[in-house]
Recover the amino acids of this structure.
């Protein structure tokens, strides 16, 4: 869940590597480092903390060279120290390596190499891999060529168990960087007289929009004007050059103070983009060509599994309520990390959707492969074009939400819920939904962007509420039906960026234990738009009020009954029950954002987190 980037060309490598690391920093920010090669000399600079720390170190003595590799770390093995920062060198000191992933059998390999006289300076699995490749290179003999380095990488990786995206540079092979992947993403960027490696294209889009998404077991040797991709098992490996859809501007903050705020404000457009070209008024239904299923195949589906991690799993929970309401097909939601190890009896007409913004989350990818192993049609709902989940699923729906850089997912959540509503409409229309019902749902969907604009206009009102309760030790989030998953999502947002211990619950669970936590110092956020369970939510609010708990309510404009009994009220435009989660989530995103801002937290790079969890 680290970020790696490599450059080989005719320009000075370090500024390009530093700029790329800054764009990858959302993938991990415990430490960072670069290694360059010039005149037969390797130079390594690494330091704990943000890229800014590394840039400061580099300023003191800038390493030379037009070829280099670099890394920003999310610590898995070994504490956050300079010694554990990447790149790591081998025993000879002539080879350097950066790694994103986990080598599970590193301890065995380490003991074996130690017995052979190797000395290690860090606690990382990565240093062991560097030594192993170095050993194979040194024992191979002959001229120090690119082919010899590729062979050394291949032989070493064959001894490894685990996941990796790696970049390798050897002092004696100055005309190449070797990269390889299994389980962790790695992209090759094609330039003119220069080439790039990166964990994701946002790090290199400023230089090229020609990308090759490497597949698992690919090993790529990259020169200034040429490259070669082979497979770990030997022999050439096929590839496709893709055009990167987004621009450098799309990955910049623009005038916003934080990526998270920019992405919250992008939601009227991203919801529009999730709907674009997917609504047919003529047939009063949704058009989702990417599912690649005939109406008969869709009609034969008698069970749906939705799976993902974190926010994606909360979107799946909203999808459960929405699809059951619109299509009357039984839906189950599974955390991908549980689904991949469960032995769930899955009848053959079960359709599985894996949901992932990044398309690289390890547990969700494993859930996809487990479901396919069981012979089930497994579709993806992804944002990242070219991501592993998008490429390996049997079809699916792209979210078109644009790059999401803020670690806290925002626009991806509302985009996923909108797409799940489209799936509900599609399946409902080939079952029991009438044309007029279909058209009403289309009206509701098309009205969403405008309604989101109106909620964003409440930003300063929500900021004031956030300020009032920012110093709470804990917070509670409640919701019922379609909005119970929104309560979970609101609590997750608050936890991950303000570090306030927040929990989400179905409102009715209050009386079964949760109410014991209620005090005058614990604010309870209740997601209670005007729907079939509003009165039930109001009774729960009364129970909290009876114990002096302050209430922040998200309710429908004009709902005076709710406003009266709340200490703070955030009105949202009226909408159908099943689409309410797209609207009710946004005040919770802003509440968490302004709370974190008020507490001086790093909103875009919250502690201990990273944007894409590519390790198990
Ligand atoms: C949400 O704010 C978090 N960043 C995290 O829970 C995230 O939703 C989860 O890791 C899943 O990521 P994905 O959608 O990229 O698979």
């Amino acid at each position: 869940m680290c970020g790696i980037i490599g450059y080989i060309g005719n320009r000075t490598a370090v500024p390009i590597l530093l700029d790329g690391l800054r764009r990858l920093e959302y993938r991990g920010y415990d430490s960072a480092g670069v290694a360059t090669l010039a005149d037969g000399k390797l130079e390594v600079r690494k330091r704990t903390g943000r890229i800014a720390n590394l840039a400061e170190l580099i300023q003191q003595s800038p390493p030379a060279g037009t070829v280099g590799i670099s890394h920003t770390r999310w610590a898995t093995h070994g504490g956050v120290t300079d010694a554990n920062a990447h790149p790591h060198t081998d025993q000879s000191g002539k080879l350097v390596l950066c790694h994103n992933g986990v080598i599970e059998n590193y301890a065995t390999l380490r003991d074996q190499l130690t017995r052979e006289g190797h000395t290690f300076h860090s606690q990382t699995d990565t240093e062991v891999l560097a030594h192993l490749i170095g050993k194979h290179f040194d024992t191979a003999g002959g001229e120090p060529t690119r082919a010899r380095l590729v062979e050394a990488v291949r032989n070493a990786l064959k001894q490894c168990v685990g996941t990796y995206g790696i970049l390798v540079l050897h002092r004696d092979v100055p005309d190449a960087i070797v990269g390889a992947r299994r389980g962790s993403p790695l992209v090759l960027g094609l330039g003119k007289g220069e080439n790039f490696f990166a964990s994701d294209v946002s790090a290199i889009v400023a230089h090229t929009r020609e990308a090759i998404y490497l597949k698992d077991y690919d090993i790529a040797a990259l020169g200034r004007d040429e490259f070669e991709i082979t497979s770990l098992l030997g022999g050439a490996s096929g590839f496709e050059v893709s055009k990167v859809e987004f621009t450098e501007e799309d990955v910049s903050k623009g005038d916003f103070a934080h990526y998270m705020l920019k992405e919250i404000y992008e939601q009227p457009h991203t919801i529009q983009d999730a709907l674009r070209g997917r609504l047919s008024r003529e047939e009063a239904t949704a058009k989702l060509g990417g599912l690649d299923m005939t109406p008969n195949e869709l009609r034969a589906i008698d069970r749906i599994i939705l799976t993902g991690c974190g926010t994606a799993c909360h979107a799946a929970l909203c999808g459960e309520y929405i699809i059951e309401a619109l299509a009357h097909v039984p839906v189950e939601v599974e955390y991908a990390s549980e689904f991949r190890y469960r032995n769930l009896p899955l009848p053959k007409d079960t359709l599985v959707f894996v949901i992932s913004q990044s398309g690289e989350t390890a547990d969700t990818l494993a859930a996809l492969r487990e479901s396919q192993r069981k012979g089930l049609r497994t579709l993806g709902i992804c944002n990242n074009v070219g991501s592993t989940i998008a490429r390996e699923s049997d079809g699916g729906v792209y979210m078109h939400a644009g790059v999401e850089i803020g670690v806290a997912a925002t626009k991806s959540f509302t985009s996923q819920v909108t797409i799940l509503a489209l799936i509900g409409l599609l399946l409902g229309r080939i079952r029991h939904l009438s044309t007029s019902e279909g058209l009403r749902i289309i009206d509701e969907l098309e009205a969403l962007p405008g309604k989101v604009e109106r909620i964003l206009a409440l930003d300063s009102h929500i900021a004031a509420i956030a300020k009032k309760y920012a110093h709470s030790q804990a917070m509670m989030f409640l919701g019922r039906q379609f909005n119970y998953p929104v309560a979970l999502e609101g609590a997750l947002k608050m936890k991950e960026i303000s570090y306030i211990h927040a929990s989400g619950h179905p409102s009715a669970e209050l009386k079964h234990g949760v109410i014991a936590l209620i005090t005058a110092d614990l604010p309870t956020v209740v997601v209670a738009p005007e729907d079939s369970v509003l009165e039930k939510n109001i009774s729960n609010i009364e129970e909290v009020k009876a114990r002096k708990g302050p209430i922040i309510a998200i309710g429908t404009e004009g709902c005076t009954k709710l406003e009266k009994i709340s200490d703070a009220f955030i009105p949202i435009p009226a909408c159908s029950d099943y689409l309410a989660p797209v609207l009710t989530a946004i005040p919770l995103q802003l509440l968490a954002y302004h709370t974190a801002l008020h507490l001086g937290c790093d909103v875009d790079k919250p502690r201990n987190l990273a944007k894409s969890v590519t390790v198990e």
Observations:
- The mean pLDDT is 96.
- Residues 435-456 form the longest helix (22 residues).
- The chain has 19 helices and 26 strands.
